[in-house]
Structure formats: C-alpha cells, structure tokens
C-alpha cells in the first residue's frame, strides 16, 4: 500500500530510521524575531522582545517541510547540538530546519536579566506556544515557504510543547515527535514517583549490584544522621564536602544534591560524550556504577558515583554542594544560573513537579517528599504566585493530546 499522506509517510520513515552520529551544522545560522510580549493582552501588544532562532536552509527545496524544534528550558544552541535526529532526517525530506528559543531562556530575554515580578509574569506555556506559532508564520513568509508543512520536534519539556503545539495549532503543526515528554506527570495525572523508579531502573539495568549499593549508601547516611555529632563529621569527610554539615537542613540538602546527580546522569545517559547541561562521558550511568562498585565503604560509594556528574574534570578538591544544587519547586532540580530562575517560576505556576510519596522498594533513594502544600508555600513566598495544579490537565488533557498529535515516545 502506498501512503499518499506526506505526514504519514514521514512517520513511517522515522520508524525505520537508524540514527547514527551525524555532522550537525556548526555554527548555526542565527537570527532574531520581533516577538510580542503578551499575546493575550490587546492593550500591551506594542511591547515586544527579541526571540532568538537558529536555522539551516541548505537542504530545503520548494514545498519541502519545516522541521521545527520547540525550544525548552535552556539556550537553544545546546538543543541544536544534541538533536541529531532532525539533521539525519532533513536531507532526505528537503527540509528547512528551524530551532526556536523559549522566552526567558538563553538569549531570548524580554527584560534582560530581570527575573523578578512583575517582569517574569509573561512566562507561561501558552505564551511560549503563541511565540512559536507567530515565529513559524513569520519564517514561512520571510523564506517564501507558505505551502510547507510543519512537523514539531521536542524532548522532555520541549516534547510536551511539541504535543501541545499539535493540539492547539493543528492548522500550523501537521505532526509532532515528542521524545520523553512527561505529559501526564507534569499535568498531575500520573504518579510522579515513577520517575525516581525509572532512574533506579537505569542503574539496575547497568548492574543490579550498583543500584543496591547506592540504596544501602543512602540508608547508611540516614543512620549516621541520627547521631549528628559524629555522623555529620563522618559524612562530610567521606563525601569530601568543602564545608561540613552542621544541621538537619544541610543534611537533607546533601541528600537532594546526591539524588540530583543520579537523576541528571540518567536523563543524559547518551552513548557518547556530551556537554548538554553537564560535561559527561559516554554512558555516564555505567561509568557512575563502575566508580561506585570500585570502592568498598558505602559513603565513599556515593562520592565516587556523583563525582561523575559534579566533578567530571576530576579537578575539584571538594564538593560545594550548596552551589552545585539549588532546591526549588521542581523536585528533580532546576539547575543553575538564570535558566534555573525561569524554570523555578514555571514550576510554581503550571507544573506538577512535586512528589509527596515515600521511597519504595523499586527505587534506590531515601524518602525526600515534596508536597503540594510545601510547593504552594514556597511559591507564594518566592514568587508571589499560587500554583495552578489543574491547569494543564484542564487546558490540554492527556488522551486528547496523544490522539490528536502524532507522537513518538
């Protein structure tokens, strides 16, 4: 059977594609689009900001498609450098490649480095989706591509945006590939603790002895904390912390700091060296497990394992956990720098990135719950906002997105 639908042919091709390491064009072609600050306030429509976008048009032929990457929580150049699939596909489809930077991230800063209220109030998913819709239409006009179909791409949060673009703007987006898009979790429709169980599974798959040893190390850390006078000293020494743990608050900070490293390595577990969010070796989960199993004592196990993420250069004499991990409204962490401020605000408004459950037999971490009440209190204090926990499920649902959008997970 020959499929006449060009979008369906595209997805069938993707299903049979073997993605190899390819040459990603560098440096990318860069430009800025005059973007409306507030798409939903007619009185303020004369306020604009410069939205950055990257593109490559060398493969494009008339009526070829536009492969549109929905930028997520970071500078768009990082996603350009780590999304090889698009560049594998583009030559075969004579596609125009377009990467859009998300407002308030990278260089697309409406108020430069001002991330406080009232300047940050224009950061929302709906505003970002509208940005993308207007940018696509603008690029189509500029490059004379008015008849080109658009396929949205995205990973993680960007994958959510790709799905939402297909659902909200189906006349613009004809298909979407959403990789590892946590649509249900972030909308509050699933059990978020499954995330930590999935991280544990990565380590268990690398070596069952690895996840078990890490779990035992976390449990021993909790036991040592019950005798803080001697326990905190031992933990500080064995973990090689720059400043010793002084109290329970700092102890739990250290636990979250350690958990964050395992989470990030699982999310960035590429089979090749990468500098996406961190400088990591190929297969960082395997490397982390190898380091963990190479030492005998349990607390040094944690030190050697998380060092793959926090000390990839092996040049740090100690770990400054308070600067390497900052707690926020996202239980998995918000990162560092200005991008972390924007993500924290988003986590305080529309996202469900909390987990009030205790640890289970299926995960290697100790219980570090973050409840709705704790998130609400934090967000009101930090940003002066109250989270709208039901907003994404109400606006976009779950099954509706998956049916309307052609998605690949």
TrEMBL record:
* Biological process, per Gene Ontology: proteolysis
User: Gene3D superfamilies, alphabetically?
Assistant: alpha/beta hydrolase (3.40.50.1820), Serine carboxypeptidase S28, SKS domain (1.20.120.980)
GO terms for cellular component: vesicle
Under InterPro entries, the record lists: AB_hydrolase_fold (IPR029058), Peptidase_S28 (IPR008758), Ser_carbopepase_S28_SKS (IPR042269)
**Could you tell me one molecular function GO term of this UniProt entry?**
dipeptidyl-peptidase activity
Signal sequence residues: 1-23
Coiled-coil annotated spans: none
* Keywords noted in UniProt: Glycoprotein, Hydrolase, Protease, Signal
User: What domain of life?
Assistant: Eukaryota
Tell me which PANTHER family the record gives. DIPEPTIDYL PEPTIDASE 2 (PTHR11010:SF107), PROTEASE S28 PRO-X CARBOXYPEPTIDASE-RELATED (PTHR11010)
**Hey, which family's this protein in?**
Belongs to the peptidase S28 family.
Protein name, entry field: Uncharacterized protein
Instruction: Specify the taxonomic lineage.
Output: Eukaryota, Metazoa, Spiralia, Lophotrochozoa, Platyhelminthes
């Amino acid at each position: 059977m020959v499929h006449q639908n060009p979008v369906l042919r595209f997805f069938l091709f993707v299903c049979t594609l073997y993605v190899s390491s390819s040459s990603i064009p560098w440096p990318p072609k860069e430009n800025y689009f005059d973007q409306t600050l507030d798409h939903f306030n007619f009185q303020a429509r004369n306020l604009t900001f410069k939205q950055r976008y990257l593109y490559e048009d060398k493969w494009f032929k008339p009526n070829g498609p536009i492969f549109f990457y929905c930028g997520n929580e970071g500078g768009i150049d990082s996603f350009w450098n780590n999304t090889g699939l698009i560049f594998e596909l583009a030559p075969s489809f004579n596609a125009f490649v377009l990467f859009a930077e998300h407002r308030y991230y990278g260089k697309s800063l409406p108020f430069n480095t001002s991330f406080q209220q009232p300047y940050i109030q224009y950061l929302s998913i709906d505003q970002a989706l509208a940005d993308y819709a207007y940018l696509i239409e603008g690029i189509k006009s500029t490059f004379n591509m008015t008849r080109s179909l658009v396929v949205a791409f995205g990973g993680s949060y960007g994958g959510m945006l790709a799905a939402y673009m297909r659902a909200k703007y189906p006349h613009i987006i004809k298909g979407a590939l959403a990789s590892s898009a946590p649509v249900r979790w972030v909308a509050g429709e699933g059990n978020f603790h499954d995330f930590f169980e999935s991280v544990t599974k990565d380590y268990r798959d690398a070596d069952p002895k690895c996840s078990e040893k890490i779990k035992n190390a976390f449990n021993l850390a909790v036991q040592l904390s019950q005798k803080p006078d001697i326990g905190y000293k031992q933990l500080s020494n064995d973990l090689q912390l720059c400043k010793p743990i002084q109290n329970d608050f700092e102890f739990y900070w250290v636990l979250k700091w350690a958990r964050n490293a395992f989470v990030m390595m699982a999310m960035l577990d590429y089979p090749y060296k990468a500098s996406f969010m961190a400088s990591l070796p190929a297969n960082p989960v395997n490397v982390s497990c190898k380091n963990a199993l190479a030492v005998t004592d349990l607390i040094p196990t944690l030190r050697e394992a998380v060092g793959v993420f926090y000390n990839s250069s092996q040049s740090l004499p100690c770990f400054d956990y308070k600067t390497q991990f900052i707690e926020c409204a996202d239980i998995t962490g918000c990162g560092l720098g200005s991008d972390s401020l924007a993500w924290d605000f988003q986590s305080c408004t529309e996202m469900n990135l909390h987990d009030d459950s205790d640890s289970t037999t299926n995960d290697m971490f100790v219980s570090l719950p973050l409840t709705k009440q704790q998130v609400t209190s934090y967000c009101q204090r930090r940003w002066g906002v109250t989270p709208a926990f039901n907003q994404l499920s109400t606006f976009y649902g779950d099954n509706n997105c998956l049916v309307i959008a052609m998605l690949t997970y």
